[in-house]
Amino acid sequence: MQNNTFSTLFVGQNLIKLSEVDSTNNFLKVLVSNSEPLTEGTVIMADKQFAGRGQQDNIWHTEPGLNLTFSIYLKPSFLPVGKQFLLNMAVSIGIRNALQRFVKDGIRIKWPNDIYFGHQKMGGVLIENMLSGSTYKSTIIGIGINVNQLHFDSRKLKSATSLKEILQQDVNLIELLAEICSHIEKQYLQLKAGGYSQLKDDYVRGLYKFNEPAVYRQNGEVIEGRITEVTESGLLGILRAGELRHYNFKEIEFLNNTP
Ligand code: BTN
């Protein structure tokens, strides 16, 4: 479907809306592997996912029809292998900037790419890359944003919120999708143009708990420190007792209590 409501160059111009699917990432993966070439920027969105996937093999639960669950197809063949975290940064900044059109203050990126409001999760990103030799052939960017849902099952989710809970009013899903696509496109073009330091600055500026004393669990031990950087390769730098240490995703867990 040609999309005239999106003022983008390519992200979301080919928009495929599904009423039900296992996972928009899975659907897009099948489309990409078909022989017909797929236009870069194609977006698959679904009212309902019955097997939505989150990071670390988690399930992504959302009430049908109330939220955004969609995947974007990009071809970042210009991106040197090893610099993939910059794409995470670009996507997270794009989502944050779009949400800031609706909520002025308080939207943060929780490293590596969760979207938070206060101490509650509002959205998440699942990026799946396909490499061809040493270049990125294609990338599927799966995004879930809690929009008009008010009740979250605390047994399934740690602590979640939605735009409606914050604004106390409904948000139009297509308008929000258009905003997110437009902001992601802007950041993606910045990445393509090699604007790495701007991306790193913007990412860190929007980071949850940046430079704040906080507690983390590392190797079963509770530690206190402050985030002072995120490296280009995506490692989280925590300054603890005067020493800066770097952690990857599986090595560190954010704890909610304050020191
Ligand atoms: C996370 O925070 O764990 C990432 C959640 C990503 C969920 C989105 S919803 C659209 C796309 N399709 C999926 O199956 N997952 C992503």
What report would you give on this structure?
With 259 residues, this protein is of the alpha+beta class. The protein has 2 domains: 14-206, Bira Bifunctional Protein, Domain 2 (BirA Bifunctional Protein, domain 2); 212-254, Roll (SH3 type barrels), CATH 2.30.30. The protein has helices at 24-33, 84-99, 163-167, 173-192, 196-205; strands spanning 15-21, 43-49, 68-74, 107-110, 114-117, 120-132, 135-145, 214-218, 221-230, 236-240, 243-247, 253-254. Strands 1-2-3-7-6-5-4 form a 7-stranded mixed beta sheet, sandwiched between helices. Strands 11-10-9-8-12 form a 5-stranded antiparallel beta sheet, with no helix packed on it. It is globular and about 55 Å long. It binds biotin. Biotin (BTN) is lined by residues 23-25, 49, 52-55, 58, 60, 69-71, 114, 124-126, 142-144. Pfam families: BPL_LplA_LipB (PF03099).
